[in-house]
Amino acid sequence: xxxxxxxxxxxxxxxxxxxxxxxxxxxxxxxxxxxxxxxxxxxxxxxxxxxxxxxxxxxxxxxxxxxxxxxxxxxxxxxxxxxxxxxxxxxxxxxxxxxxxxxxxxxxxxxxxxxxxxxxxxxxxxxxxxxxxxxxxxxxxxxxxxxxxxxxxxxxxxxxxxxxxxxxxxxxxxx
Length: 175
Fold this sequence. Notes:
The protein is mainly alpha-helical. The protein has a single domain (15-174), classed as Endonuclease III, domain 1 (Orthogonal Bundle), CATH 1.10.340.30. The chain is built from eleven helices and no strands.
């Protein structure tokens, strides 16, 4: 069976993400929100396409600045839907703006990272239910990949992957 750990090393698009981000715990709100945006944008598409459009999305979404995105209105939505550098999907764009408002609200109780930590550990089904009642456009695959990519759920790396071994050595709680 082919896994991300077998495909990504040396791949011109996947390598850096696999080697430096995927499965590594994060605390920074902007990084967490970017990861959620990327997973939402990936729904129904390939991860390679998302990684290729990542720089365009970073520019279009103002560096994934939560407060700025939360303030987006109709003009911003129209701008995003006309931008060929991103994945243009009306439902996804609306969900991202909504979710920025949710993350902004989480600041009142310690922030996005604290919210995740407060609910950890859970199994995938419980996470999916929690996300479904909190965020928009966050089905099972999106939630599962988002949480695996941050070390909240196991399975980001194959047991024999050297990157997985590095993560387990540096962040035993994420293993």
